[in-house]
Amino acid sequence: MELTLYGQSTVLIRMSEVSMLTDPWWGQFEFMRGVPIASNPELIEKLDLMLVSHNHIDHWSNPAIRLARKLGTTVVGSQKAVSRAEKHGLEDAVELKPGEEYEFGGIVIKAVPAFHPFAKDAIGFVVEGEKTLYFSGDTRYTPELEEALGRFELDAALLQAACSNYPFIGKDGMDLDSAARLAGAIKPKLVIPIHYQVRGKVLEPEELKAWSAPVPVAVLDPGVPLHID
To answer: 70, 151, 171, 199 — which has fewest CB within 10 A?
Structure first.
């Protein structure tokens, strides 16, 4: 398995000869980006799947929809993410709810719950192929999420590591502390932080290096592939 961080929650995953791009955001609302995107996704020549956790502007973009149409990519995502893709003329889109799954090229994409106060249809993904990988998207830590993930033996978990905190609502996702708590509960062989490169939520390299997660941690260098044997 190979993982390459483009930026924020956009990660190119190559597994079992299938290529996937998570929460593909570029080309719109770039003023929100706190760290420059590592490379241009438009240069990708083959892309089988886009996995879209929810329809927020730092997770799903019209340029990504256009790239999916160009490459013949299947979009797998939440209800509103798929609805938006279809409105923009993308026919090959699959809506998943927690507990549902989609098979492609020998891998299985399983939707798991996500708990986001501003995106009720948000989901996460467990990808099962040569490895088993969890992608959190945007979610709070909850006992329900821990229970849903507890049945998987995860080789790696891509966990949201920075979020916003609102009056009367609280956190809209996971910060480093809650990501560490989830990692300790689900015990992946490797945890990889994501979602920390948008303006106002940027984590510096020193913060990531000092993160005391209870399982091994790998911080992705933007644009540099990480191979997991």
So the answer is: 151
Low-confidence residues of the chain: pLDDT under 70: none
Q: What angle do CA 132, 22, 28 make, to 5 degrees?
A: 170
- Residue 148 backbone dihedrals phi, psi, to 5 degrees: -65, -35
**Amino acid, res. 160:** Q
- DSSP H helices, the chain, are 62-71, 79-87, 143-149, 176-186, 205-209
Alpha carbon 158 to its chain's center? 7
The CATH code of the domain that includes 13 is 3.60.15.10
Report the distance separating Cα 198 and Cα 202, nearest Å. Answer: 6
Residue 74 · residue 93 · CB < 8 Å: yes
- Residue 32 confidence (pLDDT): 96
- Range of 177's domain? 2-227
202 CB neighbour count, 10 Å cutoff:
13
Q: Which letter does DSSP use for residue 212 in this model?
A: -
**pTM for the whole thing?**
0.97
Distances (CA, A) of 4 to 155, 183, 192, 216: 16, 21, 11, 18
Domain count, the chain: 1
